[in-house]
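S.,

As promised, the fe (iii) ion run. Input:
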Amino acid sequence: MSKKNSAMKRNAETRKSVPPNKATPKNKANSSQTLFKNLKLAAQDFKSTQEKMAFIIENEKFVWIGPQNKIPKNLKPQKEHDLKNQLVFPSFIESHTHSIFAGSRAAEFEMRNTGVSYLEIAQKGGGILSTMRKTREALPADLLKKTQNHVDQFLKQGVSTLEIKSGYALDLKNEIKLLQVVQKLKGPTRFIPTFLGAHALPPEFKTHAEYLNYLATKVLPEIKKQQLAQRVDIFIENKFFEADTAEKFLIEAQKQGFQLTIHANQLSLSGGVDLALKLQAQSADHAIHLTDDLVKKFSQSKTVAVLLPAADLYMKCAYPPARKLLDAGATVALATDFNPGTCPTQDLALVGLLARLEMKMTLPEVFTAYTKSAAKALGIDHEEGEIAVNKRANFISTNADLEDFFYSAGYTPDHLLFICGDRVKRT
Ligand code: NIG
Ligand code: FE
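Predicted complex:
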């Protein structure tokens, strides 16, 4: 296949895998090449850096990467950026957030902190259902404004790609409203929407099975028709959705062409991880409660374990066995789980810090978890997550060192963020 044809094929795949937004590469008619030189490049495994490196970007992707004294003669970049020995590494991918919601649950946090459990609050109509009531009432314009603020908070920390789950409306009209608002968010961030209608049982339904049947027959087809999401999530947990009931729904979602991700084994050995592995979900998220057998099965699968330690901090629960997963060879990603209930922070530095302090992850493992492995969790690792030829030119450049990241909670060292080769302007 010629270079041009394969580029066209890649772009077609991109359009298929994720509804287009501003950060979807375009086939520019007049493509030009830009050289970035004098940079210190982090190795693919983040274990070392190499000076006097350069790369060339064309059509929003890397087309050449190497020592700057070895630029191939046939490449003729029209533009040049001198990065003055700044460190360059891939930008961050936030692979698990519930960034679209209305209201606040700060008062519930005080209750939880003084002894009422998450499940008790949920059973009394609080928790997810309290956010649901506010979110159903919210006007799209207000949701858009609030969510755009969340997006901007992530962008400032070097996040170029952001997953956003629906799941705080729990009916056809309002879940669609949320996903339509996600479509209206302003880039340059790339958004990956996920449908999480199966987050909790809404008051209109008596049984989880009935509600899941409604989601499968009424809501999923509409999402497909309007191309609002390509991924389906579910919260598998005792008192939420049981694994047995969930399986039928997830298989139906797959039949309709959706990829799967599962909130699994957050509060107990709920069967969520087993199901994620059985159905070859893109990811099983939280994954706190794992037997040695499940760790082994994880390592033999393509499913990514997306670990969310900031939520574990707020929930005062155990941290997931990241070390065991990594040592067994499983793919581990990290994310915030930003949401109004169990994780009201958007702080990537805190997530990485907790992974290092509490989960014995090394700094290179944290960087990998927030870039390449996060891309794999979202099924976009063929498009981004690494500084590599043919991948999107999404990167961070900074005068800081790798060691300065994921070190100080609430703090991202000064840096520039480039998305598809373009420098993101500060807001
Ligand atoms: O990932 N566990 C389910 N969903 C969210 C929490 C949702 C909420 O409490 O609002 C989570 O922790
Ligand atoms: Fe979550």
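The longest helix spans residues 208-226. DSSP finds 15 helices and 15 strands in the chain.

- D.
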